[in-house]
Amino acid sequence: MKAVIVIPARYASTRFPGKPLVPIAGVSLIQRVYQQASKARRADSVYVATDDGRIADHVRSFGGRVAQPDGDFQSGTDRIAASLDLLDGSFDQVVNVQGDEPLIDSRSIDAVIETLQSTGVDMATLACPFEDESERRSGDVVKVVTDLQGVALYFSRAPLAGARRHVGLYGYQTQVLRTLAALPASPLERAESLEQLRALQNGFRIRVLQTDKPHFGVDRPEDVLRVEQELARHG
């Protein structure tokens, strides 16, 4: 079986326009995400899926692969699904690594791919502990709760009892991704602005793997300094 990583990246972010190109300790956000994703041993290829020529040119400048599907997409999942037929080759699994996770752990990506390939589960994702109480309350931080077997029950931006911090990574069986992209946005997806709720409301199972390694996403300009401090802390 073959797996591909696709990183969705758009320029027009509401909270942080031009975010993929912002420098973090001298290296763009999208390049840092691409470099981390490229360390995953179980992935056969890595691509950036974007609608913006500036991002595409930048990714090519550091040797990255790009897919540029036509159209407007309501989520990163939809953009990735539209990119599938533009990739070199066919793949059994697709991993969506969010373009705002510069510290994503490649071992976690490998764990998601291994779970998809060994269990055949529809989807897999990650969760880690909250850093502090402010994260637990923040609407920018997505929370997830699971059943006793580690299958997702719900995702929310609101505080949830027994929740952990959701990490911006989704793994799909390729056919599951194609099916999801063909479905309309679900009521809960629209209410929470969380694309994974489309999968839950349509009966797909999402295995949530637990990791103790913290992940710092870049949602707003002030998050850049936090990531730079974490990079400096770990050399």
What's the gist of this structure?
This protein has helices spanning 29-38, 53-61, 76-83, 106-119, 133-137, 174-181, 187-192, 196-201, 223-233; strands spanning 3-9, 23-24, 27-28, 45-50, 65-67, 93-97, 123-128, 143-146, 152-156, 164-173, 206-210. With 235 residues, it is an alpha/beta fold.
Kindly describe this structure.
With about 240 residues, the protein is of the alpha/beta class. Strands 1, 4, 5, 6, 7, 8, 9, 10 and 11 form a nine-stranded mixed beta sheet that branches. Strands 2-3 form a two-stranded antiparallel ribbon. The protein contains nine helices and eleven strands. The protein has helices at about 30-40, 55-60, 75-85, 105-120, 135, 175-180, 185-190, 195-200, 225-235, and strands spanning about 5-10, 25, 25-30, 45-50, 65, 95, 125-130, 145, 150-155, 165-175, 205-210. The protein has one domain (about 5-235): Spore Coat Polysaccharide Biosynthesis Protein SpsA, Chain A (Alpha-Beta Complex), CATH 3.90.550. Strand 8 and strand 9 form a beta hairpin.
- Provide the gyration radius in Å: 16 Å
Q: What percent strand?
A: 15-25%
CATH class: Alpha Beta
Q: Number of folding domains? A: 1
Q: Helical element count?
A: 9
Stretches where pLDDT is under 50 for at least 5 consecutive residues are none
Mean pLDDT: 92
What is the name of the CATH superfamily?
Spore Coat Polysaccharide Biosynthesis Protein SpsA, Chain A
**CATH-defined topology:** Spore Coat Polysaccharide Biosynthesis Protein SpsA, Chain A
